[in-house]
Design brief:
The complex is a heterodimer of chains A (about 400) and B (about 290).
Chain A: H1 2-28, E1 31-38, H2 45-62, E2 65-66, E3 69-77, H3 82-94, E4 100-103, H4 107-120, E5 124-126, E6 141-143, H5 148-161, E7 166-172, H6 175-190, E8 194-201, H7 209-217, E9 222-226, H8 232-241, E10 250-254, H9 260-263, E11 274-277, H10 286-299, H11 305-324, H12 330-337, E12 341-344, E13 347-351, E14 358-370, E15 373-385, H13 388-391
Parallel strand pairs in A: 1-3, 1-4, 4-5, 5-6, 7-8, 7-9, 9-10, 10-11
Antiparallel strand pairs in A: 2-3, 11-14, 12-13, 13-14, 14-15
Helix pairs in contact in A: 2-11, 3-4, 5-6, 11-12
Chain B: H1 2-30, H2 38-55, H3 60-81, H4 91-113, E1 129-132, E2 135-138, H5 139-161, H6 163-173, H7 175-180, H8 185-211, H9 217-232, H10 238-257, H11 264-276
Helix pairs in contact in B: 1-5, 1-8, 1-9, 1-10, 2-3, 2-4, 2-8, 2-9, 3-8, 5-6, 6-8, 9-10, 10-11
The chains are: A alpha/beta (about 400), B mainly alpha (about 290).
């Protein structure tokens, strides 16, 4: 009886000691909190998963302390619904006192959090959403993904210069689709090309048959396609089923249609598709090779462009903290991020000091078979492309 | 020539809609049970087929009947454990219960299969087009028309000519008198329900190639199933069959000729038909 009481007392004393030491350790080393708001469920879930995976991988490789501070990532799922995003961002800023909010799978989600970032002077790192206007909505927004205008204008220029005269367009009828169409058309037509058919496909309907028949009947040299990454496979399969590949009609577009995440499942119909995009898992740099290998080892799949957005986003936060010497003040962090440049798995990138948007290479790629797997193989590079959606103004 | 291609695509699309939705016509029309979770069984069939073909390397045509059987077994299991208790409840209870099942199936599928699109690896001879008198015919769509056509005939025969068909009709029209005659009504219902779910699974496996397959399948296509059953009227198989064909052709033709209206053609058709015949094309005037 006495024995047992004594052991218990010893146990309690030990636990108290441990708790006390934990408190002192926490005091000695402050934490920097990052609120990561991404869709982990719902139709956009693969975006959130890729970003979260990449961030975890980055922290494994680079440790979780920077400039004497411990980094803590608080993951929240907004299912890509802007109402959720706003509520979660508010909770993170007010209750959890986060120093940075990050993630944002779709444009409306990034926009919903923008006023909060401004009000609380908390940096908002956009790692996925891709319409041009986002960074203009708050001086605290910095983007590490891409804009649709970046890739769509480049493929427009490239097509006009490479013997494609007549193009039929097929785009999903929502904001990113319309962005892609508009920027492509401007550049393609300016380069002397002609758009012979323009079809906007409703987002909800995945049977492309009638639209593809229309494409075929308009006899273009190429079809310009933008559909959300998830539907790319369906599109490619039906394109082949309708015999468009045999009638010599090429597929061109921004790279979402051949996302690395899904490319392998699409089958050989996708071979020869030419797209312009910021990242390919086949990007031939030593850094990317180790990135892809590590990612594959950790998660069993290939990283797509969303993973790279997450990787660079967390890198940006780490480097900014190093520059401020661990100061977490929002204005100081944003000032540190402006103009920062570094080597990413996608190649050299930098943050435009004027727009806080990403400046990066855009690559022209063709889908080819490498070691029995399908890859976007890069064959031409447009260096340091700024977002054309802004430079125009 | 284009007109024929459109017609062909429309028929294939309609047939597919029919196989997917006719199980729902059976449960909703014959058993008077509102089963909004119908699409979840279709999705189950699609995933079963995908797993068998992609991971186990089973031939596509061998995987199709297994997709039917697994979905049917799943349906039978749920009927015995869950659905049975809701036959006597109000339609609202049934709707709430089954929509809950849909959300559970979406999340479960997301967890086990991942949220991105799954593709079934088709054999080469089902890909591409063949040329019939200058008309480009998609091989996969041709196969859908053949299989679904045979299935429709078989269904019609089962319902009208077999002993099981007459038992089912008796059980539906007057369950008390039917059980008085020695018909095991719960068993007939269970079999029918399982068969309906099996058909959905079969349709899901066939349709994955054209409609796509992801965890949101049951939500995305619920509306289409309901349109088919509403427009066709739920008291027979012929109604939903003709409705599916009409809607399939209308949808495809609408998207081809007036792409700007695109997705709305199918809804417009539904509204017009329902104004003209409020109980559906072949609905009974005194439908319950």
């Amino acid at each position: 009886m006495f024995n047992r009481t004594r052991t218990m007392l010893q146990g309690i004393a030990g636990m108290a000691l441990m708790a006390a030491s934990a408190v002192t350790a926490a005091q000695a080393q402050e934490t920097v909190k990052i609120g990561l708001i991404v869709p982990m469920t719902g139709g956009q879930a693969s975006t959130g998963q890729q970003i979260n995976n990449a961030i975890k991988l980055y922290m494994q490789k680079n440790g979780d302390t920077v400039a004497g501070k411990k980094i803590e990532v608080i993951l929240k799922d907004d299912a890509a619904l802007p109402d959720n995003t706003k509520r979660i961002a508010q909770e993170l800023i007010v209750n959890d006192k986060v120093n940075v909010i990050a993630g944002f799978g779709v444009t409306p989600a990034a926009l919903a959090a923008a006023p909060l970032a401004t009000q609380a002077k908390v940096p908002e790192i956009v790692m996925a959403a891709g319409t041009s206007i986002i960074t203009e909505r708050s001086p605290y927004i910095v983007r590490t993904s891409f804009t649709l205008a970046q890739s769509s204008t480049i493929i427009g220029d490239w097509a006009a210069k490479n013997g494609i005269k007549k193009v039929a367009t097929l785009t999903s009828d929502y904001a990113p689709g319309n962005d892609a169409l508009q920027f492509f058309k401007e550049h393609f037509v300016a380069g002397g090309g002609q758009v012979v058919e323009e079809v906007k496909v409703p987002l909800a309907n995945p049977d492309f048959a009638p639209f593809l028949q229309r494409m075929k009947d308009s006899k273009p040299d190429a079809v310009f396609v933008f559909v959300p990454a998830g539907q790319g496979g369906n599109f490619m399969k039906q394109y082949a089923e309708r015999g468009l590949d045999k009638s010599g009609i090429k597929v061109i577009g921004p790279g979402d249609v051949t996302d690395d995440d899904l490319l392998n499942g699409m089958g050989d119909a996708v071979l020869g598709t030419v797209t312009a995009h910021i990242y390919s898992a086949a990007h031939p740099s030593a850094m990317n090779k180790s990135f892809v290998a590590d990612y594959k080892k950790a998660y069993g799949t290939r990283p797509g462009f969303m993973a790279v957005g997450g990787w660079d986003g967390i890198h940006l936060v780490y480097e900014a903290l190093k520059k401020t010497g661990g100061k977490v003040d929002g204005d100081a962090l944003i000032a540190a991020m402006k103009g920062m440049s570094w080597e990413s798995p996608r190649g050299p990138i930098s943050i435009d000091p004027d727009t806080r948007d990403i400046v990066q290479n855009v690559y022209i790629r063709e889908v080819k078979k490498v070691d029995g797997e399908l890859y976007n193989v890069e064959f031409a590079t447009f260096d340091a492309v700024k977002d054309p959606g802004k430079t125009k103004k | 020539m284009t007109l024929l291609t459109i017609l062909f695509d429309g028929v294939a699309y309609g047939m597919l809609l029919f196989v997917l939705a006719c199980g729902l016509a059976v449960t909703m029309g014959l058993m008077n049970f509102v089963n909004l979770a119908h699409g979840a069984f279709a999705m189950a069939g699609g995933y079963v087929c995908a797993i068998l073909v992609n991971r186990s390397g089973l031939p596509f045509f061998a995987a199709l009947p297994i997709a039917f059987l697994v979905s049917a077994a799943l349906g039978a299991l749920l009927e015995r454990t869950l659905y049975r208790h809701l036959y006597a409840r109000s339609h609202l209870d049934q709707v709430l219960f089954t929509i809950g099942l849909v959300f559970m199936s979406v999340t479960a599928c997301d967890y086990f299969m991942g949220s991105s699109q799954t593709f079934i690896h088709l054999p080469d001879y089902l890909q591409g087009q063949i040329d019939i008198f200058g008309l480009g015919v998609g091989r996969y769509r041709l196969m859908i028309i053949v299989i679904c056509g045979l299935l429709t005939v078989a269904l019609q025969l089962i319902l009208s000519k077999t002993r099981f068909g007459s038992r089912l009709r008796a059980a539906v029209d007057d369950p008390r008198a039917a059980s008085g005659l020695g018909i095991n009504v719960p068993q007939v219902f269970a079999l029918t329900f399982a068969f309906g779910c099996g058909l959905a699974g079969f349709g899901g496996a066939l349709g994955a190639e054209i409609l796509g397959l992801d965890p949101y399948f049951p939500l995305k296509f619920m509306i289409y199933f309901l349109i088919v059953v509403t427009v066709g009227g739920s008291s027979s198989i012929t109604g939903p069959f003709l409705a599916s064909l009409l809607l399939g052709i209308g949808d495809v033709a609408g998207k081809y000729y007036v792409p700007k209206l695109g997705a709305f053609v199918i809804y417009t058709m539904m509204i017009v038909i329902l104004i003209w015949r409020p109980n559906g094309l072949f609905g009974r005037a005194n439908a319950r």
